[in-house]
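Now for today's protein:

——
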Amino acid sequence: MTLGMSVVVIKGTMDVGHIGRGFQINYEHLRLNYFKIMYFAAPAFFIIALIVNIEGLVMFAYFNVVGCDPTESGQINNANQLLPHMVVRIFHGLPGLSGLFLASLFSASLSTISSGLSCLSAQTVQDFIKPRYNDMSVGKATAIAKVSVFFYGGMSVAVTALIANVSGCMSQGVVIGAVISMIFVFWISLGQNFFTSKPSEPWLPPNPTDQCSLDSTFYTNTTLMTNSTVCYNSSAWHPSHPSNTSSRITTYQKEMEIFNTIKA
């Protein structure tokens, strides 16, 4: 797979001219916006992944030097308890450091939970409330979103307390949860593939079509593709179409400049 993708990238880049031209064309047609996010997300993710891996290596080396594997010796019964066990040992007699680790652990958990609750709240308003009440004001939608966060948070706490008091039924619960999850995923997949009124996608400027008449000659003379209209059947995006691609690009760029000004 890697070899196949590499061949496509190399030959496609050769046909474009060079890799710099390819990036320039994509930049002019607003295809590189996601790199703005990657500039921040990719280095942060790499640093976190690197620290986690180094932490595991240090933990293994520590218990090797100590000469006591807590899992093999029975001091702990779960590999997930290795890091807290090591924290208690190495920070013994150093006030505050164990609490710092505990605080960072809770901070990571709460950030994940808050992201999930915000996602549920946004989906409730956008997918269930607004489609039925198109004239709803922004203030009312915001109030419903806040109430739904409180509702989902309460449900999460209730389910957590319920699971903590359950004994002997965890295996059945895992099976039931997995089956229900697969049913929901199957339901969502059916809706995405067969539901006619799909949500609108953000507009991006297309490639030009002024050379499609020449390109269709290539497909006509190729035995692998006998239908040359596959490339030329795009009259909706003809350069003379009133969509006016250049003006839409200019408008989009102005909107992004205003957005970046407000965000700054």
Notes: The mean pLDDT is 76. The longest helix spans residues 34-66. The radius of gyration is 28 Å. The chain has ten helices and no strands.
